[in-house]
Protein backbone atom coordinates (compact mmCIF):
# COMPACT_ATOMS: atom_id res chain seq x y z
CA UNK A 1 0.00 0.00 0.00
CA UNK A 2 2.58 2.57 -0.97
CA UNK A 3 1.95 6.23 -0.60
CA UNK A 4 2.87 9.13 -2.77
CA UNK A 5 6.40 10.44 -2.34
CA UNK A 6 6.38 13.51 -4.56
CA UNK A 7 9.65 14.00 -6.37
CA UNK A 8 10.88 10.49 -6.99
CA UNK A 9 8.75 9.55 -9.95
CA UNK A 10 5.30 7.99 -9.91
CA UNK A 11 4.19 5.66 -7.14
CA UNK A 12 1.69 2.87 -7.54
CA UNK A 13 -1.05 5.06 -6.13
CA UNK A 14 -0.19 7.96 -8.38
CA UNK A 15 -0.42 5.58 -11.30
CA UNK A 16 -3.78 4.30 -10.13
CA UNK A 17 -5.01 7.85 -9.66
CA UNK A 18 -4.04 8.74 -13.21
CA UNK A 19 -5.41 5.67 -14.94
CA UNK A 20 -9.06 6.20 -14.06
CA UNK A 21 -9.44 7.85 -17.46
CA UNK A 22 -11.98 10.27 -18.82
CA UNK A 23 -14.84 7.89 -18.12
CA UNK A 24 -14.00 7.88 -14.43
CA UNK A 25 -13.75 11.66 -14.35
CA UNK A 26 -17.11 11.95 -16.08
CA UNK A 27 -18.63 9.54 -13.58
CA UNK A 28 -17.25 11.60 -10.69
CA UNK A 29 -18.64 14.81 -12.19
CA UNK A 30 -22.06 13.19 -12.48
CA UNK A 31 -21.92 11.65 -9.02
CA UNK A 32 -20.43 14.59 -7.16
CA UNK A 33 -23.37 17.01 -7.01
CA UNK A 34 -24.45 17.14 -3.39
CA UNK A 35 -23.71 13.47 -2.73
CA UNK A 36 -21.12 13.77 0.00
CA UNK A 37 -21.85 10.48 1.69
CA UNK A 38 -23.17 12.58 4.61
CA UNK A 39 -26.70 11.80 5.83
CA UNK A 40 -29.35 14.11 4.41
CA UNK A 41 -29.76 16.23 7.53
CA UNK A 42 -26.90 17.83 9.40
CA UNK A 43 -26.45 17.32 13.11
CA UNK A 44 -27.67 20.24 15.15
CA UNK A 45 -29.21 21.20 18.44
CA UNK A 46 -31.46 19.25 20.71
CA UNK A 47 -28.68 16.85 21.63
CA UNK A 48 -28.60 15.21 18.21
CA UNK A 49 -25.31 13.89 16.85
CA UNK A 50 -23.42 15.65 14.10
CA UNK A 51 -23.38 13.98 10.68
CA UNK A 52 -19.91 13.60 9.18
CA UNK A 53 -18.67 12.46 5.79
CA UNK A 54 -15.29 10.71 5.70
CA UNK A 55 -13.56 10.15 2.34
CA UNK A 56 -11.00 7.47 1.49
CA UNK A 57 -9.40 6.59 -1.82
CA UNK A 58 -9.98 2.99 -2.91
CA UNK A 59 -7.36 0.84 -1.22
CA UNK A 60 -6.30 -2.32 -3.03
CA UNK A 61 -6.01 -4.51 0.05
CA UNK A 62 -8.92 -6.80 0.92
CA UNK A 63 -10.67 -5.77 4.09
CA UNK A 64 -9.76 -2.09 4.13
CA UNK A 65 -13.20 -0.79 3.21
CA UNK A 66 -14.88 -3.03 5.74
CA UNK A 67 -12.45 -1.84 8.40
CA UNK A 68 -13.12 1.84 7.61
CA UNK A 69 -16.86 1.23 7.82
CA UNK A 70 -16.44 -0.62 11.11
CA UNK A 71 -14.45 2.21 12.69
CA UNK A 72 -17.03 4.77 11.59
CA UNK A 73 -19.91 2.73 12.94
CA UNK A 74 -18.18 2.28 16.30
CA UNK A 75 -17.70 6.01 16.88
CA UNK A 76 -20.22 7.00 19.55
CA UNK A 77 -20.31 10.79 19.22
CA UNK A 78 -21.30 11.41 15.58
CA UNK A 79 -22.91 9.71 12.62
CA UNK A 80 -19.99 9.03 10.26
CA UNK A 81 -20.70 8.06 6.64
CA UNK A 82 -17.74 6.64 4.73
CA UNK A 83 -17.37 7.45 1.05
CA UNK A 84 -15.01 5.01 -0.70
CA UNK A 85 -13.73 6.70 -3.87
CA UNK A 86 -12.52 4.55 -6.78
CA UNK A 87 -10.39 5.81 -9.66
CA UNK A 88 -9.06 9.36 -9.62
CA UNK A 89 -9.46 10.21 -5.95
CA UNK A 90 -7.32 13.34 -6.31
CA UNK A 91 -9.67 14.83 -8.92
CA UNK A 92 -12.81 14.26 -6.89
CA UNK A 93 -11.18 15.48 -3.70
CA UNK A 94 -10.02 18.69 -5.39
CA UNK A 95 -13.59 19.32 -6.47
CA UNK A 96 -15.10 18.35 -3.14
CA UNK A 97 -12.90 20.68 -1.12
CA UNK A 98 -14.23 23.69 -2.99
CA UNK A 99 -17.63 23.49 -1.31
CA UNK A 100 -19.46 22.40 1.83
CA UNK A 101 -20.76 19.43 -0.18
CA UNK A 102 -17.36 17.78 0.10
CA UNK A 103 -15.97 15.71 2.95
CA UNK A 104 -15.72 16.72 6.57
CA UNK A 105 -12.78 14.36 7.10
CA UNK A 106 -10.54 13.07 4.32
CA UNK A 107 -7.17 11.48 3.60
CA UNK A 108 -4.42 12.80 1.35
CA UNK A 109 -0.88 14.21 1.59
CA UNK A 110 -0.49 17.83 2.62
CA UNK A 111 0.30 20.36 -0.08
CA UNK A 112 0.92 24.02 0.61
CA UNK A 113 -1.85 24.96 -1.83
CA UNK A 114 -4.38 23.39 0.54
CA UNK A 115 -3.33 25.80 3.27
CA UNK A 116 -3.04 28.88 1.05
CA UNK A 117 -6.53 28.16 -0.29
CA UNK A 118 -7.95 27.76 3.25
CA UNK A 119 -9.13 24.22 2.53
CA UNK A 120 -7.98 22.65 5.81
CA UNK A 121 -7.97 23.63 9.47
CA UNK A 122 -5.10 23.30 11.99
CA UNK A 123 -5.26 20.25 14.24
CA UNK A 124 -2.64 21.14 16.86
CA UNK A 125 -5.25 21.28 19.62
CA UNK A 126 -6.30 17.63 19.27
CA UNK A 127 -2.85 16.15 19.92
CA UNK A 128 -2.19 17.28 23.47
CA UNK A 129 0.38 15.12 25.27
CA UNK A 130 0.23 12.60 22.40
CA UNK A 131 2.29 14.94 20.23
CA UNK A 132 5.51 13.70 21.83
CA UNK A 133 4.55 10.12 20.94
CA UNK A 134 4.36 10.72 17.18
CA UNK A 135 7.35 10.10 14.96
CA UNK A 136 8.76 13.65 14.54
CA UNK A 137 8.86 13.16 10.76
CA UNK A 138 5.11 12.55 10.77
CA UNK A 139 4.59 15.95 12.37
CA UNK A 140 7.02 17.70 10.02
CA UNK A 141 5.32 16.42 6.87
CA UNK A 142 1.98 17.86 8.02
CA UNK A 143 3.21 21.21 9.33
CA UNK A 144 3.27 24.55 7.51
CA UNK A 145 4.28 27.82 9.20
CA UNK A 146 4.31 26.12 12.58
CA UNK A 147 0.75 24.76 12.35
CA UNK A 148 -0.17 21.07 12.13
CA UNK A 149 -2.83 20.33 9.52
CA UNK A 150 -2.84 16.54 9.22
CA UNK A 151 -2.63 13.47 11.45
CA UNK A 152 -0.57 10.66 9.96
CA UNK A 153 -2.45 7.36 9.55
CA UNK A 154 0.30 5.07 8.26
CA UNK A 155 4.06 5.17 7.75
CA UNK A 156 5.13 3.58 4.45
CA UNK A 157 8.95 3.30 4.35
CA UNK A 158 10.89 2.00 1.36
CA UNK A 159 14.10 -0.06 1.54
CA UNK A 160 16.29 -2.44 -0.40
CA UNK A 161 15.43 -6.12 0.00
CA UNK A 162 18.27 -8.59 -0.62
CA UNK A 163 18.65 -12.37 -0.86
CA UNK A 164 20.86 -13.53 2.00
CA UNK A 165 21.80 -16.78 0.29
CA UNK A 166 23.04 -15.01 -2.84
CA UNK A 167 25.00 -12.50 -0.78
CA UNK A 168 26.58 -15.28 1.28
CA UNK A 169 27.48 -17.28 -1.81
CA UNK A 170 29.19 -14.25 -3.34
CA UNK A 171 30.84 -13.24 -0.06
CA UNK A 172 29.08 -9.86 -0.09
CA UNK A 173 27.81 -7.82 2.83
CA UNK A 174 24.93 -5.31 2.65
CA UNK A 175 26.34 -2.19 0.92
CA UNK A 176 27.32 0.76 3.07
CA UNK A 177 28.21 3.15 0.22
CA UNK A 178 26.87 3.67 -3.29
CA UNK A 179 30.12 2.30 -4.72
CA UNK A 180 29.52 -0.84 -2.62
CA UNK A 181 26.02 -1.04 -4.11
CA UNK A 182 27.34 -0.81 -7.67
CA UNK A 183 30.05 -3.40 -6.99
CA UNK A 184 27.52 -5.77 -5.38
CA UNK A 185 25.12 -5.37 -8.31
CA UNK A 186 27.85 -6.34 -10.74
CA UNK A 187 29.07 -9.27 -8.66
CA UNK A 188 25.58 -10.70 -8.25
CA UNK A 189 24.63 -10.47 -11.92
CA UNK A 190 24.63 -13.76 -13.83
CA UNK A 191 23.05 -14.98 -17.05
CA UNK A 192 19.91 -15.78 -15.03
CA UNK A 193 19.80 -13.13 -12.32
CA UNK A 194 20.38 -9.39 -12.38
CA UNK A 195 22.06 -7.79 -9.42
CA UNK A 196 19.43 -5.15 -8.71
CA UNK A 197 15.92 -4.00 -9.57
CA UNK A 198 15.01 -0.33 -9.03
CA UNK A 199 12.05 -0.01 -11.36
CA UNK A 200 11.49 -0.46 -15.07
CA UNK A 201 12.69 3.08 -15.74
CA UNK A 202 16.12 2.20 -14.41
CA UNK A 203 16.09 3.97 -11.07
CA UNK A 204 14.08 7.21 -11.02
CA UNK A 205 12.35 6.01 -7.84
CA UNK A 206 15.64 6.14 -5.90
CA UNK A 207 16.47 9.68 -7.01
CA UNK A 208 15.31 11.09 -3.70
CA UNK A 209 17.36 8.67 -1.58
CA UNK A 210 20.36 9.28 -3.83
CA UNK A 211 20.04 13.02 -3.17
CA UNK A 212 19.72 12.54 0.58
CA UNK A 213 22.67 10.15 0.59
CA UNK A 214 24.83 13.03 -0.61
CA UNK A 215 23.60 15.30 2.19
CA UNK A 216 21.27 17.26 -0.11
CA UNK A 217 17.55 17.95 0.10
CA UNK A 218 14.75 18.88 -2.27
CA UNK A 219 14.30 22.16 -0.40
CA UNK A 220 16.31 23.62 2.44
CA UNK A 221 14.86 24.99 5.68
CA UNK A 222 14.21 28.33 3.96
CA UNK A 223 12.28 26.66 1.10
CA UNK A 224 15.05 27.19 -1.42
CA UNK A 225 16.32 24.47 -3.81
CA UNK A 226 18.67 22.16 -1.93
CA UNK A 227 19.72 19.85 -4.74
CA UNK A 228 21.79 21.88 -7.19
CA UNK A 229 25.33 21.24 -5.98
CA UNK A 230 28.35 19.11 -6.98
CA UNK A 231 27.66 16.35 -4.45
CA UNK A 232 24.11 15.89 -5.73
CA UNK A 233 25.46 15.80 -9.28
CA UNK A 234 27.90 13.11 -8.17
CA UNK A 235 25.08 11.09 -6.57
CA UNK A 236 22.99 11.17 -9.76
CA UNK A 237 26.04 10.36 -11.85
CA UNK A 238 26.39 7.22 -9.73
CA UNK A 239 22.86 6.22 -10.68
CA UNK A 240 23.86 6.44 -14.33
CA UNK A 241 27.00 4.41 -13.58
CA UNK A 242 24.78 1.74 -12.00
CA UNK A 243 22.38 1.79 -14.96
CA UNK A 244 25.25 1.53 -17.46
CA UNK A 245 26.78 -1.43 -15.59
CA UNK A 246 24.23 -3.81 -17.16
CA UNK A 247 23.44 -5.18 -13.71
CA UNK A 248 20.03 -3.46 -13.46
CA UNK A 249 16.93 -5.50 -14.25
CA UNK A 250 14.66 -3.85 -16.83
CA UNK A 251 11.36 -5.03 -18.25
CA UNK A 252 10.09 -6.80 -15.15
CA UNK A 253 6.47 -8.03 -15.21
CA UNK A 254 5.50 -5.42 -12.58
CA UNK A 255 7.16 -2.22 -11.43
CA UNK A 256 9.18 -1.48 -8.30
CA UNK A 257 6.22 -1.40 -5.88
CA UNK A 258 5.47 -5.08 -6.56
CA UNK A 259 7.94 -7.62 -5.06
CA UNK A 260 7.35 -10.10 -7.90
CA UNK A 261 10.74 -9.61 -9.56
CA UNK A 262 12.49 -10.26 -6.25
CA UNK A 263 10.50 -13.29 -5.13
CA UNK A 264 10.74 -14.83 -8.61
CA UNK A 265 14.52 -14.66 -8.44
CA UNK A 266 14.92 -12.15 -11.26
CA UNK A 267 17.10 -9.87 -9.14
CA UNK A 268 19.24 -10.33 -6.05
CA UNK A 269 18.20 -6.92 -4.67
CA UNK A 270 15.05 -4.88 -5.12
CA UNK A 271 13.90 -1.46 -3.96
CA UNK A 272 10.38 -1.80 -2.56
CA UNK A 273 8.22 -0.87 0.42
CA UNK A 274 7.50 -2.37 3.81
CA UNK A 275 4.07 -3.24 2.40
CA UNK A 276 5.72 -6.01 0.35
CA UNK A 277 7.29 -7.81 3.30
CA UNK A 278 4.48 -10.33 4.00
CA UNK A 279 4.56 -11.54 0.38
CA UNK A 280 8.35 -11.73 0.41
CA UNK A 281 8.39 -13.62 3.70
CA UNK A 282 5.76 -16.05 2.44
CA UNK A 283 7.81 -16.79 -0.69
CA UNK A 284 11.34 -16.75 0.72
CA UNK A 285 11.04 -17.50 4.43
CA UNK A 286 14.11 -16.17 6.21
CA UNK A 287 16.20 -15.83 3.03
CA UNK A 288 16.05 -12.05 2.84
CA UNK A 289 17.22 -8.96 4.64
CA UNK A 290 16.80 -5.20 4.29
CA UNK A 291 19.02 -2.14 4.16
CA UNK A 292 18.47 1.58 3.43
CA UNK A 293 19.83 3.45 0.44
CA UNK A 294 23.60 3.55 1.09
CA UNK A 295 25.47 6.78 1.79
CA UNK A 296 27.24 8.40 -1.15
CA UNK A 297 30.60 8.28 0.61
CA UNK A 298 32.14 8.71 4.04
CA UNK A 299 30.67 12.23 4.24
CA UNK A 300 27.19 11.09 3.19
CA UNK A 301 24.40 9.35 5.07
CA UNK A 302 22.02 6.44 4.62
CA UNK A 303 18.49 7.39 3.63
CA UNK A 304 15.02 6.08 2.84
CA UNK A 305 11.61 7.59 2.04
CA UNK A 306 8.93 7.41 4.70
CA UNK A 307 5.67 8.08 2.89
CA UNK A 308 2.12 7.53 4.03
CA UNK A 309 -1.36 8.98 4.18
CA UNK A 310 -2.73 11.52 6.65
CA UNK A 311 -6.19 12.61 7.77
CA UNK A 312 -7.42 16.20 7.45
CA UNK A 313 -10.51 18.23 8.36
CA UNK A 314 -12.08 20.40 5.68
CA UNK A 315 -12.36 24.11 6.46
CA UNK A 316 -15.75 24.08 4.74
CA UNK A 317 -17.17 21.37 6.99
CA UNK A 318 -20.37 22.50 8.76
CA UNK A 319 -19.20 20.49 11.79
CA UNK A 320 -15.51 21.29 12.22
CA UNK A 321 -15.36 20.62 15.97
CA UNK A 322 -17.17 17.30 15.60
CA UNK A 323 -14.88 16.33 12.73
CA UNK A 324 -11.77 17.14 14.79
CA UNK A 325 -13.12 15.09 17.69
CA UNK A 326 -13.62 12.09 15.40
CA UNK A 327 -10.09 12.39 13.99
CA UNK A 328 -8.72 12.52 17.54
CA UNK A 329 -10.69 9.44 18.56
CA UNK A 330 -9.61 7.38 15.57
CA UNK A 331 -6.08 8.49 14.69
CA UNK A 332 -4.71 9.83 17.98
CA UNK A 333 -6.30 7.90 20.84
CA UNK A 334 -7.27 4.51 19.41
CA UNK A 335 -4.40 1.96 19.46
CA UNK A 336 -6.50 -1.07 18.56
CA UNK A 337 -7.87 0.38 15.33
CA UNK A 338 -4.52 1.90 14.37
CA UNK A 339 -2.74 -1.43 14.70
CA UNK A 340 -5.58 -3.12 12.82
CA UNK A 341 -5.43 -0.56 9.97
CA UNK A 342 -1.66 -0.66 9.66
CA UNK A 343 -0.97 -4.38 9.99
CA UNK A 344 -4.02 -6.51 9.21
CA UNK A 345 -4.65 -5.46 5.59
CA UNK A 346 -1.35 -4.13 4.35
CA UNK A 347 1.92 -3.88 6.27
CA UNK A 348 2.86 -0.47 7.64
CA UNK A 349 4.10 1.25 10.78
CA UNK A 350 1.65 3.03 13.12
CA UNK A 351 2.79 6.67 13.38
CA UNK A 352 2.44 6.75 17.17
CA UNK A 353 5.71 5.26 18.38
CA UNK A 354 4.20 3.63 21.47
CA UNK A 355 1.60 1.88 19.32
CA UNK A 356 4.28 0.69 16.90
CA UNK A 357 6.39 -0.60 19.80
CA UNK A 358 3.52 -2.81 20.98
CA UNK A 359 2.62 -4.18 17.53
CA UNK A 360 3.54 -7.87 17.63
CA UNK A 361 4.16 -8.16 13.89
CA UNK A 362 6.82 -5.45 14.07
CA UNK A 363 8.79 -6.88 16.99
CA UNK A 364 11.27 -9.20 15.27
CA UNK A 365 13.29 -9.88 12.13
CA UNK A 366 13.36 -7.62 9.07
CA UNK A 367 10.13 -5.86 10.12
CA UNK A 368 11.75 -4.66 13.35
CA UNK A 369 14.80 -3.61 11.34
CA UNK A 370 12.66 -1.47 9.03
CA UNK A 371 11.02 0.21 12.02
CA UNK A 372 14.46 1.11 13.34
CA UNK A 373 15.73 2.26 9.94
CA UNK A 374 12.64 4.39 9.44
CA UNK A 375 13.24 6.11 12.76
CA UNK A 376 16.94 6.68 12.04
CA UNK A 377 16.96 7.46 8.30
CA UNK A 378 13.38 8.10 7.15
CA UNK A 379 12.69 11.26 5.13
CA UNK A 380 9.13 12.48 4.61
CA UNK A 381 7.04 14.32 2.02
CA UNK A 382 7.48 18.08 1.68
CA UNK A 383 4.30 20.22 1.72
CA UNK A 384 6.00 22.94 -0.36
CA UNK A 385 7.12 20.54 -3.11
CA UNK A 386 4.54 20.79 -5.90
CA UNK A 387 3.76 18.35 -8.73
CA UNK A 388 5.44 20.71 -11.21
CA UNK A 389 8.64 20.58 -9.17
CA UNK A 390 8.39 16.81 -8.99
CA UNK A 391 8.03 16.53 -12.77
CA UNK A 392 11.12 18.69 -13.34
CA UNK A 393 13.09 16.58 -10.89
CA UNK A 394 11.94 13.29 -12.47
CA UNK A 395 12.79 14.57 -15.96
CA UNK A 396 16.26 15.45 -14.72
CA UNK A 397 16.71 11.95 -13.31
CA UNK A 398 15.52 10.27 -16.50
CA UNK A 399 17.93 12.29 -18.62
CA UNK A 400 20.87 11.58 -16.33
CA UNK A 401 20.19 7.91 -15.55
CA UNK A 402 19.10 6.58 -18.92
CA UNK A 403 20.63 9.04 -21.35
CA UNK A 404 23.87 9.86 -19.56
CA UNK A 405 23.17 13.61 -19.66
CA UNK A 406 25.47 15.89 -17.70
CA UNK A 407 24.11 15.96 -14.12
CA UNK A 408 25.20 19.55 -13.44
CA UNK A 409 23.45 20.87 -16.55
CA UNK A 410 20.28 18.90 -15.81
CA UNK A 411 20.27 20.06 -12.20
CA UNK A 412 20.53 23.67 -13.36
CA UNK A 413 17.42 23.22 -15.52
CA UNK A 414 15.46 21.60 -12.69
CA UNK A 415 16.63 24.33 -10.31
CA UNK A 416 15.22 26.99 -12.65
CA UNK A 417 11.79 25.36 -12.71
CA UNK A 418 11.71 24.82 -8.96
CA UNK A 419 12.84 28.38 -8.25
CA UNK A 420 10.08 29.75 -10.47
CA UNK A 421 7.51 27.63 -8.64
CA UNK A 422 8.80 28.77 -5.27
CA UNK A 423 8.56 32.40 -6.38
CA UNK A 424 4.96 31.79 -7.35
CA UNK A 425 4.21 30.25 -3.94
CA UNK A 426 6.16 32.54 -1.66
CA UNK A 427 6.77 35.68 -3.72
From TrEMBL:
- Please, which domain of life does this record's source organism belong to? Bacteria
Q: Name one Pfam family in it.
A: SBP_bac_1
Instruction: Supply the source organism for this entry.
Output: Kribbella alba
- Protein name (database record): Sugar ABC transporter substrate-binding protein
Where does the signal sequence lie?
none
Amino acid sequence: MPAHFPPAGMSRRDLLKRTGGLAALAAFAAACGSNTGRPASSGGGGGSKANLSQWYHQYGETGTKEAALRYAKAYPDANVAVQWVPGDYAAKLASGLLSSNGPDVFETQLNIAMVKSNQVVPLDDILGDAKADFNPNDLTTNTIDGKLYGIKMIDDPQVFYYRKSLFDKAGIKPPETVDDLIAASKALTTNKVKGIYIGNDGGVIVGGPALWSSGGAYLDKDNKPGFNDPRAAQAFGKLHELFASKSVLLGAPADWWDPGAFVQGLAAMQWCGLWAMPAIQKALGDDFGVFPYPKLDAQGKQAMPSGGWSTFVSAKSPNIDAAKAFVKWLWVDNPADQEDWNLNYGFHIPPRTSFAAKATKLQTGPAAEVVKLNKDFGVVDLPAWTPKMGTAFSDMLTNVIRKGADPAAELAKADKTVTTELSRLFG
